[in-house]
């Protein structure tokens, strides 16, 4: 039987064997955390603490300033020692709260609720909102916003994204193997909030142990199905995942809610469960630390605000001199100029690439019209034309080639024989058009 998939895409070497078999380990509590007040799509938070203030784990330190925003909580107990701007994963300066950890691990009061499934959909959604949950696959879209579709766009399907198609990353894989019941409970909460009777968990076929565990966990749920997917990048992109599993297409410029679907990441589902069951805010996440440039790759449960440097040290440190450190996967992640950048809610991985894994392309050639990028583009675009127009400075003209439909998966750049930085050209055009 053919596996579910979409048209286009690529399958780069995934190197998941470096960390896929290694259980999640608790990272040491950092002596100091740097917690960004803007670690989600939408309006940044307003700081609610002052320098010198004592805080407990889970205390609110940043309140939302708009509907598309999410509160931020401290991941340690201790004292606020600074309020300052720091670089995020994309190199942009964002406001942050710096807290020295007193090591006491004192929690703020949490509201445990064993009967959480008896709560109304609105009450469950409020718990998700108060916990500051965002999309943990990297997009960081506030979850409560996804759970608030307009009345004219009813939702009938919820999909949990367990594809994890980015090479190297295994955080979601390990969550599915180690906490499958929590994921299913999170899915059931999401389905109740949205009034949905059908749920799916989409998993690529290179994770047979995760598929088995998720099928076991959902065996008593007649309305939840585990969908096995072909191994292909970018299978985990929302639009591709929806097409592969239920054969619906998100219209150009549209959102999954336009076709009755909400997609949430595996980690997000766990966070939703923990928020509704235990009242726990989103203050930690599983991060894959991997690559041949780190001595002992693994999966760490890390506090939000932990400097990446400490996660690398927890995995044995560097192997010789690393060539590059990337936050996220190699296809859509961002290269870092410092490893003092902190873990955020959307940090799925720390990839330390060795010289042998890394290739440089100082010079790129002209487009040779081979069409390779067009063949693999999952959105059916013409990346070659987008790059040519952007290179020549015809930014407005790129809109005629549906520039804004590109979600920057980088597949085109990966296959280009001329080593053209196509996705970088796309980002340049987008940034200039939006000014």
**Could you list the spans in which at least 5 consecutive residues all have pLDDT below 50?**
none
Rg calc: 21 Å
Give the topology string: H per helix, E per strand.
Answer: EEEEEEEEHHEHHEHEHEHEEHEEEHHHH
- Main beta-sheet strand count, sense and barrel state: 6 strands, mixed
DSSP summary, beta strand count: 17
The proportion of residues in beta strands is 15-25%
Note the total helix count. Answer: 12
Ends distance: 49 Å
* Helical content band: 10-25%
Shape: globular
Q: Estimate the mean pLDDT confidence.
A: 95
Structure classification: alpha/beta
Largest sheet: spatial strand order: 1-14-13-17-15-16
Short description:
This protein is an alpha/beta fold and 435 residues long. The chain contains twelve helices and 17 strands.
Annotation keywords:
globular; 435 residues; alpha/beta; 4-stranded antiparallel β-sheet; 12 helices
Structure in words:
The protein is an alpha/beta fold. 25% of the residues lie in helices and 19% in strands. The protein has 12 helices and 17 strands. Strands 1-14-13-17-15-16 form a 6-stranded mixed sheet. The model has no long low-confidence stretch (mean pLDDT 95).
Write the layout of secondary structure elements.
Layout: E1 24-26, E2 32-36, E3 46-47, E4 54-55, E5 60-63, E6 72-73, E7 78-87, E8 93-101, H1 121-130, H2 143-146, E9 157-162, H3 171-178, H4 180-194, E10 199-204, H5 208-217, E11 224-229, H6 238-246, E12 261-265, H7 266-278, E13 284-290, E14 298-303, H8 308-314, E15 324-327, E16 334-335, E17 349-353, H9 372-376, H10 383-391, H11 411-415, H12 422-433
Parallel strand pairs: 1-14, 9-10, 9-12, 10-11, 13-17
Antiparallel strand pairs: 2-8, 3-5, 4-7, 5-6, 7-8, 13-14, 15-16, 15-17
Helix pairs in contact: 1-4, 1-7, 3-5, 4-5, 4-7, 10-12
